[in-house]
Amino acid sequence: RAVAIDDALVLFPSPAIGHFISMVELGKLILNFQPSLSIHILVISAPYDAGSSTSYIADVAATIPSIYFHHLPTITLPSTTGTHPETLIFEVLRLSNPHVHQALLSISRTHKINAFIMDFFCFASLSFASQLNIPGYFFYTSGAGSLATSMYFPTLHQNTTKSFKDLNTFIHMPGVPPIFSSDFSSAVSDRNNKAYEYFLDMAFCFPKSAGIIVNTFELLEARALKAISDGLCIPNSTTPPVYSIGPLIVTKNASDGATDQSLTWLDSQPSQSVIFLCFGSLGLFSMEQLREIAIGLERSGQRFLWVVRNPPSDNQSLAISAHPDPNLNALLPDGFLDRTKERGLVVKSWAPQVAVLNHNSVGGFVTHCGWNSVLEAVSAGVPMVAWPLYAEQKFNRLMLVEEIKIALPMKEDENGFVTALEVEKRVNQLMQSESGNSVRERTIAMKNAAKAAVSEGGSSRFAMSRLVESWKR
Ligand code: UDP
To answer: Does the complex come out with an ipTM higher than 0.95?
Structure first.
């Protein structure tokens, strides 16, 4: 029986929206890199209440005929899973693993799979690559500094018997600035947490992969990349090849309309005068914290564009689409919207961030330090105030402030609360001070370096050609 055999790459993203989009963008990058390369991209999509990825998937499926989505069946999480977001995702992926195996087997009947590229959260599927005799790669959607710490995690685990939350000291790791023990992601702060175990298991898988693709570029994180390639981060085993192919950012938001209210408002503002505040797909604040931000912004006198969401509810879903739009008058201080209407705009729930950052009126960005947001700011040349909220974001703040020097730190108290005074001070510092200017200059230098990295002869282009070569062998 004759079956048409096409070349294919299988991508397996984590279903969390930031990770998912990043992986599909990697697929697009590979397709664009060698248009002569006739290849199908099959994206395995795990079941998850991912909300806003639905329109993104529809958009990609409609516009790029060689990218296909393979949706895995729904699974039921055991009631004992808990609510830690990372644990939830790891569990969804663990329970979906038999379906991933089936999907790979069925794809391999009609395609020659050149490579299987999975998000680092999907590490449990790595063994299928060797079973099918295809190279298995990881795509690390955060930076090289974060990758260095993930690789070094088993060594840290061996060196102490205490949880990070009880250490109360600086931790030294190759290639990155010393990090205070409480600044590790809450997912790994406690050894007894299930997520800690998952991250540890994942770290043990790095050496077994055919390579690690990382969304960064040489000049942005040179020291971390060198420590990794020198083998310092995996001292007891071999370090696989690392491919820094970034910055890979979304080229188009499905919802980016030319008539978007944020962009229309920005059109009427002076050049580089507006500070943009936006906190990723999951960043939520209490009402008390929202009011504190409002007071700080009002006192700063700066122009601002602020994306506001409802505070977390008891019945919280991870999907942003599940959150109703906020009632701004009820949430923000009395009269705030009216008093600031000449110089500020508050938008509900979501703004087209990439387009906003690239608007000429935007001169600063208060960010939760999600890695996609960081790369989007770098690519647009917009300096940041770093206000981390979840996942590896406190570590990202450290990298942005101390290593790369493209952000000023927002400082919180021990409960994570940021005062109005701190907001006022940092916003003014970024927009109008010596230290703000120096961060701005560094960011613009990084914007140019990013552009060079992805241009002909640049380091990220070179990494892409090494990557494509590696699976042809
Ligand atoms: N984003 C957006 N508008 C918003 C909030 C987020 O367009 O109002 C996009 C942002 O541009 C980025 C992604 O959502 O591409 C968030 O990814 P990131 O890694 O920064 O954070 P995460 O949501 O994964 O924590």
So the answer is: yes
